[in-house]
């Protein structure tokens, strides 16, 4: 498309001056999802959405107005709340999108798909004052679209853009929606949104017409020079059209075969990812079962030990009670004699010697105190406890990172969450640790991160500090408020209003006790609605006296253990 025509299109629609300096986006973009709500739920539902968002319904009718980014986001969130899924939201975002382009529709019909994407990018200033688009040609039937914004944006903004871009080939050429591959997203913390679009090439009549005209021009030579009949010229034209059509059909078939191959490859990768995720979930379930069996065995063993101890204590209590009662009786008899004797002597010497009388009073009081001590005498018993041996083994950190990558991918499969797991050069190559306990810690943290993150990303980094493996687990989930942060580790402040399932948020207390048995420690930083980050430090070599340490940990309260191994980082 020529630059002259492009400048004319740009000048044909100039955005009106907005009196509000915070006016960032044009309400024309919201015409599609609001039209979907109106046609499927009624006009009253549209009014309710706009009023809840704090917007004047008149702003969303022609001629369209400019509104703030915050109001735009609230309207999108209101639309999404009325729909069942993100897929339905994308369908609503592209609903009757052809009606929003106005006179540009005439230009689109005379352009190629790539020219349309470039034109949309160059005219984005008509609907947005905070963003810009870049379109990169990736070869026939594919482009990369990059989007940058001066404001942080929600996932709904990105989904609405993707939906409208996917609708372009179907609107004007009647071909299936292109396959979209997302590479980056602002809502997940990236600096831009980036995604590829690949579509099946439509048949272009221009090639057939061009070849037909060229062959017709060749046919002019014998008609003009040799005097051939005029119908030869028409025959040459038909032959040219046929050849051009065959060449175009061959090109379309080749392009569509390539697109089909790309689609099959993507489906194969998806099926492989589904299979790996299923295997990881099965492994996670098996680890949970093994851990539950171990806990059941431990509970059974401790229950039997407690019953045995209680039985011995009862017998010992009976013997000791009998001995104490007998001893108390034997001691209290002479005390009674001393008490009565002191009272009798006091009657005799009360008026003779006040000093002796005072001594006798103190003797009676001492006798009374001894008598009370004998009555209150109690037995104490010391119960010896033993702890099981730890099962230390050498764990390869690279293998552990790969396992966590598969585990996390399985937990977030099919959700709007991007998992990232990597190992730095500073991480130790291996460590000796109780692998069952380490898996228990990681499973709890990964499960919590996936459970309380609706969209965004979860990152796991394997790093190293002197003598320790450092594992950082960071998410963009709901976060933990400062007043609850300490309580969730000790189980004293569970989440009584979880957003997923029936979890009470007690997994972190399990992490604390288990990490203490590994002689590890944990640091945490969290901000509500923005996410949480944990830093786990596990020693590369097990410390000495592990049995004694386990005994001390079992004797400590969970609150004391949490206070000793947890450090809460301040939010910057």
Short description:
By secondary structure, this protein is α+β, with helices and mostly antiparallel strands. The protein is built from 17 helices and 14 strands. The protein is 56% helix and 15% strand.
Give your account of this protein's structure.
- This protein has 3 domains: 3-198, H-NOX domain (Alpha-Beta Complex), CATH 3.90.1520; 207-269; 392-568, Heat Shock Protein 90 (2-Layer Sandwich).
- The protein has 572 residues and is α+β, with helices and mostly antiparallel strands.
- The protein is elongated, with a radius of gyration of 40 Å.
- Helix 2 (31-41) packs across helix 3 (43-53) and helix 9 (205-225) packs antiparallel against helix 10.
- The protein has helices at 3-12, 31-41, 43-53, 69-82, 86-93, 104-109, 113-122, 155-173, 205-225, 231-349, 354-375, 397-411, 435-451, 482-490, 507-517, 546-555, 558-565; strands spanning 23-26, 66-68, 131-137, 142-149, 179-184, 193-198, 392-396, 417-423, 430-434, 456-465, 468-475, 521-527, 531-539, 566-568.
- The longest helix is centred in the middle third of the chain and has 119 residues, at 231-349.
């Amino acid at each position: 498309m020529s630059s002259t025509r492009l400048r004319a299109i740009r000048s044909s629609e100039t955005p009106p001056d907005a009196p509000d300096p915070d006016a960032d986006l044009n309400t024309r973009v919201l015409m599609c999802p609001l039209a979907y709500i109106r046609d499927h739920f009624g006009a009253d539902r549209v009014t309710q959405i706009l009023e809840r968002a704090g917007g004047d319904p008149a702003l969303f009718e022609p001629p369209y107005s400019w509104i703030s980014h915050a109001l735009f986001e609230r309207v999108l969130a209101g639309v999404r709340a009325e729909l069942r899924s993100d897929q339905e939201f994308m369908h609503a975002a592209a609903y009757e999108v052809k009606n929003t382009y106005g006179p540009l529709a005439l230009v689109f019909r005379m352009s190629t798909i790539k020219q349309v994407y470039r034109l949309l990018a160059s005219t984005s200033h008509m609907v947005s004052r905070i963003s810009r688009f870049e379109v990169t040609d990736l070869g026939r039937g594919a482009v990369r679209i990059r989007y940058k914004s001066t404001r942080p944006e929600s996932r709904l903004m990105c989904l609405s853009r993707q939906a409208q871009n996917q609708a372009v080939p179907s609107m004007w050429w009647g071909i299936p929606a292109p396959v979209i591959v997302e590479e980056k997203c602002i809502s997940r913390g990236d600096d831009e949104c980036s995604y590829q679009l690949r579509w099946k090439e439509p048949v272009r009549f221009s090639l057939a017409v061009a070849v037909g005209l060229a062959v017709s021009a060749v046919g002019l030579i014998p008609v003009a020079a040799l005097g051939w009949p005029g119908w030869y010229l028409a025959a040459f034209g038909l032959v040219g059209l046929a050849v051009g059509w065959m060449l175009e059909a061959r090109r379309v078939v080749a392009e569509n075969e390539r697109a089909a191959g790309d689609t099959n490859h993507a489906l194969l990768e998806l099926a492989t990812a589904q299979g790996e995720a299923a295997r990881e979930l099965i492994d996670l379930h098996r680890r949970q079962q093994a851990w539950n069996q171990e806990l059941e065995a431990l509970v059974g063993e401790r229950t039997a030990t407690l019953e045995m101890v209680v039985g011995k204590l009862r017998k010992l209590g009976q013997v000791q009670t009998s001995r104490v009662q007998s001893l108390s009786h034997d001691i209290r008899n002479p005390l009674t004699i001393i008490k009565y004797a002191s009272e009798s002597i006091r009657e005799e010497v009360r008026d003779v010697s006040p000093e002796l009388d005072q001594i006798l009073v103190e003797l009676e009081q001492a006798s009374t105190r001894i008598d009370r001590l004998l009555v209150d005498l109690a037995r104490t018993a010391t119960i010896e406890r033993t702890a099981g041996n730890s099962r230390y083994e050498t764990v390869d950190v690279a293998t552990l990172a790969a396992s966590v990558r598969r585990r996390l991918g399985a937990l977030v499969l099919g959700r709007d969450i991007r998992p990232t797991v990597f190992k730095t050069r500073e991480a130790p190559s291996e460590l000796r640790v109780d692998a069952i306990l380490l898996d228990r810690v990681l499973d709890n943290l990964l499960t919590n991160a996936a459970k309380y993150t609706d969209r965004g990303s979860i990152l796991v980094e394997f790093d190293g500090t002197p003598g320790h493996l450092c594992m950082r687990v960071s998410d963009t989930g709901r976060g933990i408020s400062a007043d609850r942060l300490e309580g969730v580790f000790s189980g004293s402040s569970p989440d009584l209003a979880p957003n997923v399932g029936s979890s009470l948020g007690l997994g972190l207390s399990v992490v604390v006790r288990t990490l203490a048995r590994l002689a590890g420690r944990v640091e945490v930083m969290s901000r509500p609605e923005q996410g949480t980050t944990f830093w786990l430090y596990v020693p590369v070599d097990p410390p000495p006296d592990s049995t004694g340490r386990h005994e001390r940990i079992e004797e400590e309260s969970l609150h004391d253990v949490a206070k000793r191994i947890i450090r809460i980082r301040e939010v910057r």
